[in-house]
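Table 4 source record.
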Amino acid sequence: MKQKKDKKHADRELLKVVHKLKEDFTNTDPWRVLRIQGEFVEGFDALSKIGPAVAVFGSARFTPDNYYYQVATFCAEKLVKAGLAIITGGGPGIMEAANLGAYRAGGISVGCNIELPEEQESNPYQTISLHFRYFFVRKMMFVKYSVAFLIFPGGFGTMDEFFESLTLSQTGKIEHFPIILFGSSYWKDLLKWMQNSMLKEDCISEKDLELFHILDDPEKAVNIIVDNSKKQGYI
């Protein structure tokens, strides 16, 4: 799928070095700060009342006949019935699957959509749909309003969410919550690399490897999240 070369991308424009100030002040960094502030306000206003939520991540490329798509739908439905909301990136694949499960269960199904050079199509199973220009604002919403991360196989974006959650938990920037990687066959080599490279070279500690779970049982994944949510008084 070819990218549209002429389409502006908010993050790219923000991070681009300015060689010559343009006359249009709406393209300047101070004006972008106001846009960023507006996205934070809109996000906080929409999500501050949804209650405890589980963020679900994974590939946007999986179709409904994919096993992980089906598991994500199952888990989201179970989590909603337990009293939790579901929050995703709002697009297709695993995001659609989780929103579908929440929608079917009659719960809160949030989609935090992102503006991309090649437009991401929003899935139709959202009871709250937000649109963001900036990735870092969108990522803040996942962290701020989630009591757990449920992560299915995915690409760079999925890895980004996974490692950011680990970093925030490891450094105590957030109160640690369950981080579950579903599908051991997909994640096992990453775990081996962490053990054989990161741990071996003393870049992380043994305790850091306890910040997440790798599971293959959907019921167990749901139970870990629900039990912790009850323990913390969220539900």
